[in-house]
Hints:
The protein has one domain (9-291): Metallo-beta-lactamase, Chain A. It is 23% helix and 16% strand. The protein has helices spanning 63-74, 96-103, 114-117, 134-138, 205-210, 226-237, 254-266, 268-271, 278-281; strands at residues 23-26, 29-34, 37-42, 53-55, 82-84, 107-109, 153-155, 169-172, 181-185, 190-194, 243-246, 252-253. The longest helix has 13 residues, at 254-266.
Amino acid sequence: MTQQIPIDPDSVDDAPAGPDGTHALRSDLAYQRHAIVNVAYLGPPGAGDRGWVLVDAGIMGSRAAIEAAAASRFGQGARPAAIVLTHGHFDHVGVLEDLAEAWDAPVWAHPLERPYLDGSAAYPPPDPGVGGGLVARLSPLFPTKPVDVGTRLHLLPEDGSVPPLPGWRWLHTPGHSPGHVSLWRAADRTLIAGDAFVATAQESVYAVATQAPEMHGPPRYLTIDWDAAGRSVAALAQLEPELALTGHGRPLRGPGLRRALHDLGRDFAAVAVPETGRYVEAPIRVGDPAATQKP
């Protein structure tokens, strides 16, 4: 698959993993890759019980690794103050129910993601016709059944604040999913983008395996509104981030990140939108009844 937007190698953060299996990006931000997806740990090392926040909840089978990393980084038995979700796709909520129950942790998400997190609706089906590689072709096999975190679910407030994360704001970045959000800390221009854009070609088995870096639009096979996705990328580019952690691929930093993100926003229709696909021809907009499928 042709690269969407090449990345300067100097812009890729290749910090080695620490003893806890996480890669430190800021004094209070680390991430960990679980096969195909990243999760973020927010809080200083040794933060203790309720002194940190988990962003996204990995894939099925990642519970033990997440719990071990949390215990090593924040202290044995240290539970998060909350789990904050960028969205509810299967690879971001794989062990959400188990972790939320084990930690008795509230879960925060955008109101438009609620149906996919309280068991009432499923996402629209994946689109294998978007091209790009074997992962896309296999996407109909991916689970779309919603999780149910019930009474633990809290909806992010309209004012853009993130109650368990002082200093951070949530930004509505729809397109990949109706209630997709990215997290932004203006003080040091740190962006947790989720899947609004990603840093590798997630449709390709080779790119996923090697984490070959590039600036890439949201994973094609699950994106349901390409116009909204393009607007979301353009809005994030205007922030001029210094550091971006995306849901897939390695973190990116500095001028090369900003240049590539602006290029992606400018050329989104040409490089990110697939030539064919179910949601290219018939997008599902925010508020469309088709966005919530029968579980």
